[in-house]
Design goal:
By secondary structure, the protein is mostly helical. It has one domain.
């Protein structure tokens, strides 16, 4: 084929690209990916965060009662060391 270097034939409709064009295209694609900012669905984010907070609060350890609410004998070391 005239105009194409020997050993570099066109493969299934894909034309060969020189290294400079290939690098420029890769740079362009990388830049598009880097600066791509999709529309954020803030209501979906809010629902997800609310759901996560609810799960975390229900699965946390039980809260220790305040000192006034504790009955005597609750802590065997309370009399000795005080709190």
């Amino acid at each position: 084929m005239p105009g194409i270097a020997q050993g570099h034939e066109k493969t299934e409709g894909v034309s060969l690209m020189g290294r400079g064009r290939q690098k420029a295209k890769a740079t362009k694609q990388a830049r598009e990916i880097k600066y791509y900012t999709p529309d954020t669905d803030l209501t979906a984010l809010e629902r997800e965060l609310a759901k996560t907070r609810g799960e975390r609060e229900s699965s946390s350890r039980p809260v220790r009662p305040d000192t006034e609410e504790r009955s005597s004998g609750f802590d065997p070391y309370e009399d000795k060391y005080g709190r």
